[in-house]
Amino acid sequence: MKIYFCGADFKPEPWLAALRAALPQASVEVWSPGAPPGDYAMVWAPPQAFLDEQPQLKALFNLGAGVDALTQLRIAPATKIVRLDDAGMSVQMAEYVLQALIRHFREFDGYEADMAAGQWSFRKPRLRADFPVGIMGLGVLGQRVARAVQQFEFPVMGWSRSPRQVEGVRCHAGVQEFDAFLAETRVLVCLLPLTDETRGILNRRTLSRLRPGGYLINVARGGHLVEEDLIPLIDSGQLAGAALDVFQQEPPPTSHPFWRHPRITVTPHTAARTLRDESVTQIAGKIQRLEQDLPIAGIVDPSKGY
Ligand code: NDP
Ligand code: OXD
User: 115: CA distance to ligand 1 center in Å?
Assistant: First the structure.
């Protein structure tokens, strides 16, 4: 069995070593143009040339949960696209969202500013009931985040494409329930995949529907947010601020106003990192199952784009 690695943002050697250890019978190599046909591939944003040369691949294992970089490419219909299914990301995502939520709710950004000014001052306690958290996307990551937020006793709402039942979460589904979901939400967390339906979904119209003093936590993709709509909403007082981990261009250009806005926190697409050991264990297990014609989780439905 031949497995290729084709992931521009990842250093290949440790991945090759880990997959060779997990599947000793397989030949695991970095793909280069003209290489012989392979059976499987581990990829992150591969070039179209790779897919054009390797139409016989049985499956492409994406080294992330989001497959938006892959779904833009021409991929042979028989090649399955398989995304990472948690693989250690959901707990990281819960940590990230919790810290952003609590930093905002408890006004720790304000305390940091006070500390820098040598000022000892208290802020009035705020009520969790006044900070309902709405999670867009109730998949692997969204559900884990919902669980973590509930533990801190915030009201939690969720929104998905198809109806979902998640314990302790007031669930909404589909476009017809989107505005009601927004109207109940004060802290909005985006954990949607980036698809034709969700691109630009965080915009002046939708963000204006949040409860007064709304706060945005975007940990999904930069393409979800219409970036030029955000600062006017914050400066007019409609939104209290935003924590952004993802951007239309990564990194954003140095002139981008998000870097310097006092109510916007910027992190470098790091909310949930791909963990090598967990990912390789998951991918190797799935290859073994596919070789035995057994079903696997995480196969992308090209018609939905996730
Ligand atoms: P899943 O596929 O498990 O979940 C996606 C969720 O979004 C599902 O609940 C799905 O609905 C919902 N959804 C999809 N399309 C729509 C729509 N049009 N309207 C309403 N709901 C919709 O994905 P994950 O939870 O694993 O990952 C989510 C995203 O997080 C990734 O696609 C990626 O972009 C991002 N991510 C970011 C990282 C970071 O470090 N910043 C790291 C990892 C991922 P339904 O339940 O009906 O299918
Ligand atoms: C992912 C990511 O999709 O890292 O996994 O953003």
Answer: 38
Q: Is any atom of ligand 2 closer than 6 Å to the C-beta of 65? A: yes
The two beta strands, 133-136 and 239-244, are unpaired
Q: Write the residue with the smallest CA distance to atom 2 of ligand 2.
A: 64
Cβ–ligand 1 contact at 7 (below 6 Å):
no
Helix (H, G, I), strand (E, B) or coil at 269: coil
pLDDT tens track for 67-103: 999 999 999 999 999 999 999 999 999 999 999 999 9
Ligand 1 geometric centre to CA of 303 (Å): 15
Q: Give the tokens for residue 290.
A: 């596919």
CA of residue 65 to ligand 2 center, whole Å: 5
Strand order in the sheet with 59-62: 27-30, 2-7, 40-44, 59-62, 80-82
Q: In what order do the strands lie in the sheet with 264-266?
A: 170-173, 156-160, 133-136, 187-190, 214-218, 239-244, 264-266
User: Using an 8 Å Cβ cutoff, are 188 and 214 in contact?
Assistant: yes
DSSP secondary structure letters along 78-119: TSEEE----TTHHHHHHHHHHHHHHHHHTTHHHHHHHHHTT-
End-to-end CA distance of the chain: 27
Q: What is the pLDDT of residues 101-135, one digit of tens each?
A: 999 999 999 999 999 999 999 999 999 999 999 99
Catalytic residues: 221, 269
Q: Closest ligand to 194 CA?
A: 1
